[in-house]
């Protein structure tokens, strides 16, 4: 994905497929591994000739996560290293539509609610708090505290309104109720930092976690004494886990070991390992429109390549 200006110092942190346009993805990137410099938000389309740039915007700090609106095909939200959230519109060439800054440290996770009857954004920060926002990013509606480490991941339940899960450096997976602003469940899921979590799209009680201990664990929230499934195989920290939108027991994970792995947790077996990348893999998403198509993104860039986006289609039997 080449551009007239040099974006060689950008590193990809998150990728998400549009819920409206099957060929469109958004990528959140940072300069110098997010340690210093600015960030770039990219919107890309997959064409027959390859992946092309639709639009890009700059932000003064690194961008670490991205989530599309579930009600407007043009709008998305990002989280940044300066503690702010930004609302963007692909139909608007200018700066963000709105910026909200309440977190005191990096915003490492943002997610847009998926259940009917509500339209909310949740953010998770290294300041150990999660915040819930209305879509206009006015003042936050509530702030939730309880984690004793940085929050790396916040994901809305696709089933239960006002409910989200969070994963933290304190080794716990927590389930929150927004209405009561309370933690309903705290699971000591790993003995190491948890970098990612995701809800099963077919079962409101199933949540997966990915950890620095190199394992993916699948949990049944009705009985959390031990995981339903434990999936070892990665050799470095797992950066992101995602459940398939088409198969109840299929999930994918990406890692600092340069690989993407696919699992059927019902059999505790890996289905496939993809090693197309030559650097850390930080972003991962399933296409909601095309069964078994997965997009993932490289942590590091090469020369004029802004970000390496791999689009895979799994074998039919998966």
Automatic annotation (TrEMBL):
It is found in: Cytoplasm, Cytosol; Peroxisome matrix. It comes from the Eukaryota. GO terms for biological process: protein import into peroxisome matrix. WD repeats lie at residues 100-143, 144-186, 187-229, 231-273. Its main location: cytoplasm. The keyword Manganese does not apply. One of its GO terms (molecular function) is peroxisome matrix targeting signal-2 binding. The chain crosses the membrane at residues 297-315. This is Peroxin-7. Signal peptide: none annotated. It comes from Sparus aurata. InterPro entries: PEX7 (IPR044536), WD40/YVTN_repeat-like_dom_sf (IPR015943), WD40_PAC1 (IPR020472), WD40_repeat_CS (IPR019775), WD40_repeat_dom_sf (IPR036322), WD40_rpt (IPR001680). Pfam families: WD40. Keywords: Cytoplasm, Membrane, Peroxisome, Protein transport, Repeat, Transmembrane, Transmembrane helix, Transport, WD repeat. Belongs to the WD repeat peroxin-7 family. One of its GO terms (cellular component) is cytosol.
């Amino acid at each position: 994905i080449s551009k007239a200006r040099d974006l060689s110092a950008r590193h990809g942190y998150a990728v998400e497929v549009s819920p409206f346009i099957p060929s469109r993805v958004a990528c959140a990137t940072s300069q110098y591994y997010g340690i210093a410099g600015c960030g770039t938000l990219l919107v890309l389309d997959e064409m027959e000739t390859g992946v092309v740039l639709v639009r890009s915007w700059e932000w003064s700090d690194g961008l670490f996560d991205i989530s599309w609106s579930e009600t407007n095909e043009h709008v998305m939200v990002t989280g940044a290293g300066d503690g702010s959230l930004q609302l963007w519109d692909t139909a608007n060439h200018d700066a963000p539509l709105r910026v909200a800054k309440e977190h005191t440290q990096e915003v490492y996770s943002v997610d847009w609610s998926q259940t009917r009857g509500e339209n909310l954004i949740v953010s998770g920060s290294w300041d150990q708090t999660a915040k819930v926002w209305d879509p206009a990013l006015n003042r936050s509606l509530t702030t939730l505290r309880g984690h004793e480490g940085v929050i790396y991941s916040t994901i809305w339940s696709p089933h239960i309104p006002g409910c989200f899960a969070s994963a933290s450096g304190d080794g716990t997976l927590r389930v929150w109720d927004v209405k009561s602003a309370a933690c309903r469940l705290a699971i000591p899921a790993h003995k190491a930092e948890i970098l990612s979590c995701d809800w099963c799209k077919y079962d409101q009680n199933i949540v997966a976690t990915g950890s620095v201990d190199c394992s993916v664990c699948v949990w049944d929230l009705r009985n959390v004494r031990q995981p339903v499934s434990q999936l070892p195989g990665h050799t470095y920290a797992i950066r992101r886990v995602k459940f398939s939108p088409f198969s109840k027991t299929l999930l994918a994970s990406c890692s600092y070991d340069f690989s993407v792995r696919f699992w059927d947790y019902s059999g505790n077996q890996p289905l496939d390992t993809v090693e197309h990348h030559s650097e850390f893999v930080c972003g991962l998403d399933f296409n909601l429109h095309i069964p078994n198509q997965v997009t993932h993104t490289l942590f590091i860039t090469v020369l004029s390549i802004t970000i390496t986006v791999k689009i895979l289609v799994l074998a039919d039997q998966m």
